[in-house]
Amino acid sequence: MLVWERRSRNLSDLIRYAIMPAIPAINTGPSARMPPAENGTSEFRRIAVFGGVYSNYLALAAALRDASKRGVDACFCLGDLGAFGPHPDRVFPLLHEAEVQCIQGNYDHSIGNDLPDCQCGYTDPRDNDFARLSYEYTLNHTHLENRLWMKEIPQQFLVRLGKYGLLMCHGSPRRTNEFLWESATSTHFLEHLAGEHEADVILATHTGIKWHRELSHDRHFINVGVLGRPENNGRTNVWYTVLEARPNLTVDFIPVEYDHLRLAQEMRDEKLPDEFIETILTGWWTTCLEILPAKERKRGKF
Description:
By secondary structure, the chain is an alpha/beta fold.
């Protein structure tokens, strides 16, 4: 079992490193790599689960610090380590040193395999234009060692949390870039996914907006949210999820405050799109709007 206290002596140094005024591009070579999660072999009581980091190393550092205070047994990330934000290589030392077990999102698969696009699943030309800019920046600023590591991480895996079998995936168990929205996803379909994959709990991300639905027979679907950008509600914080078996499942969505002003300035310095920076500063999405179902879009500003 991964016990956080075994890592705590390194975490304070890690957080100080993450919030230094200036950090150069980092080469995390083979010695820094962590092994992939061992499917079905580890059992935990309390875990932290992060959604897309999107290169937001400042939010990741803040989330790791918060999770350590909550005494979690282990931390997991459901993919999309790069995209949207600046300096993607600054994410990897934080993940490795804190022994965060990661699975592969669509972005990680594309970067790791040097594909021509992010496989994000957008259909709107404007969204695809912004996705292209973000992808080209991330691909060009991710060190080869990190790209090779992302190529090898698993696309999903199983973990035991008390009496529950958890299936961790990125978009859905059937497709990495599938968008499962709270307003547009039927309970019947989620029941089908849980039954087909013999999972008590399915954990996903990809949409950028957290939600939880209880299913029959004490089964659950949970979108854990993302660390990379706010969730289109006019607040600048981001979110992750803590799950615990007591023995019944408890699900807590945890808000994370971080230095979003610093992130915005670094995005300006890297000449990332103004629309991305506005989202970080205001908490309102200015891109990826066309993928939102009507109910979720109505909650936003645009």
